[in-house]
Amino acid sequence: MMSMNLDDLDNDFQLSKVHYAIQRVQFALCSHANFNSFIRKELDYAVSKLEQNSNKITFDLSEDQLTLFLLSHIENRHLGIDASHEKNQRGHCDISITIGDFIWHGEAKKHSSYRYLFKGYAQLTERYSTGTVNSSSGGLIIYTKNKLCSDMMASWKGFLTKNAPRIHACKKVDVNACEKNPLVFYSQHMHTVTKLNYQVVHYPVVLHHKPIDPDL
To answer: What's the whole-number average pLDDT of the chain?
Structure first.
């Protein structure tokens, strides 16, 4: 240890981060449940980066621009994490994240009305998703500048619970709270084609930024 210098220690630290990143991908490849957990962690990080820069990455940007910023924090070609925008998936799906044989689809919408959010949900669940064993989850990413985000998400949950059963063959949707983040919730229904359970995470990206600093 005494013969090592600071450069050696820095190199070891960098290599340990690379090994950790590889281990995370190995974890994701073990099962679809692991893959789902991995996607959620990556989504948490990507959303946090957009939110902390909401003074520069604003709601005035287009859905496509915001989504490209989001995916830039997820994609890693060297680790085999492919995060694509508008990849053909029985249509132009906003988000497709692939690791090995597993794929996760997402629709990203700027909140303007609950009907507009529902259009994205319907596209995700009844057009883009295959609902197969390796593709049984997805997400609705909601860009919002609403300063009362919790109220907005509660209203969206009510709208979804009322309207989702009419578009799914199973005529039912279950909604569950997220234990990690009270602004996020999950919905689950039987996929129309495969009859397997399909899970959707409903995730707001809070872009409200209106400082009230006093004049000094």
So the answer is: 92
